[in-house]
Automatic annotation (TrEMBL):
Domain tRNAHis guanylyltransferase catalytic, residue spans: 6-138
Keyword Membrane applies: no
Binding site for Mg(2+) 2: D29, D77
Annotated EC: 2.7.7.79
Protein species of origin: Torulaspora globosa
Cofactor binding notes: Binds 2 magnesium ions per subunit.
Protein name (database record): tRNA(His) guanylyltransferase
Length: 237
């Protein structure tokens, strides 16, 4: 095909290629899910339908990229997909990887919505959308620490949110009072408040809430202690 005189503008395009031989993490995160969850009246602090929807979507993404993905991990409105260090997916182009993962995730989220939210249709003025980034990690130790970081974050957030919302919804505290009550408390103190003041043993909370969700490269959805299993998760990589 003949080139037009405008063709030169293509020279302005730049393609960031992710470093070779590094693990690639694609992390997607729901945009303004604070508002989104309020609009669709998600249960606080954990909505099982919303979490299961995220997991089903992530599973489909993992299955689609099964030759590239080692494992995926998710909590709340985010999911991380960890890719093999020697993947040549889209010639390791950052923009291709980040945008294709997030657009597949978003379209799956919309497509599967009605399976999980059976009595609430998506409103076209309140559609879900996600951001996405690629981060490269130079060795296995760092990528294991990445996954451990997200796991610990799940625990910290979930413990706080569980006690906070129990104090508000069950004990009748205002959100400000609950915030003050928890200010400066350590993890075991929060568990004690939850037990003594709300009658709830944190250990009995659902595993999905406490541990987040791992999607294996075979597409299995499990809720495991990521820190204990970290070597097993990356065995062979
Ligand atoms: N009630 C409820 N809210 C949830 C649930 N999962 C996620 N959320 C909401 O989603 C938010 C996710 O946190 P962020 O990603 O930091 O907040 P965000 O509003 O999405 O902000 P940006 O990501 O910066 O756009 C939480 O703070 C909650 O408000 C859920 O299961 N139940
Ligand atoms: Mg978000």
């Amino acid at each position: 095909m003949a080139k037009s005189r405008f063709e030169y503008v293509k020279e302005f395009e730049r393609h960031d290629v992710l470093l070779p031989q590094c693990y690639i993490v694609v992390r997607i995160d729901g945009k303004k899910f604070h508002e989104f969850s309020r609009f669709y009246e998600f249960e606080k602090p954990n909505d099982i339908r919303a979490l299961k929807l995220m997991n089903a979507v992530a599973k489909n993404v993992v299955v689609h990229y099964k030759n590239e993905v080692i494992v995926a991990y998710g909590e709340s409105d985010e999911y991380s997909f960890i890719l093999k260090k020697d993947t040549n997916l889209y010639n390791r182009r950052r923009d291709k990887i980040a945008t294709l993962f997030v657009s597949l995730f978003t379209s799956q989220y919309v497509a599967l919505w009605s399976k999980f939210f059976t009595d609430r249709e998506l409103d076209f003025k309140h559609l879900p959308f996600f951001d996405s980034r690629c981060v490269v990690y130079p060795n296995l130790a760092t990528v294991k620490d990445y996954l451990s970081w997200r796991f610990v974050d799940t625990h910290i957030n979930n413990l706080y949110n569980t006690v906070f919302w129990q104090l508000v919804l069950k004990c009748g505290l205002t959100t400000q009072q609950a915030e003050n009550r928890l200010c400066g408390t350590l993890s075991n103190e929060k568990q004690e408040i939850l037990f003594k003041e709300c009658g709830i043993n944190y250990n009995n909370e659902p595993e999905m809430f406490k541990k987040g969700t791992v999607v294996t490269r075979k597409g299995e959805i499990v809720h495991i202690d990521v820190i204990k299993e970290i070597d097993q998760i990356f065995k062979g990589y």
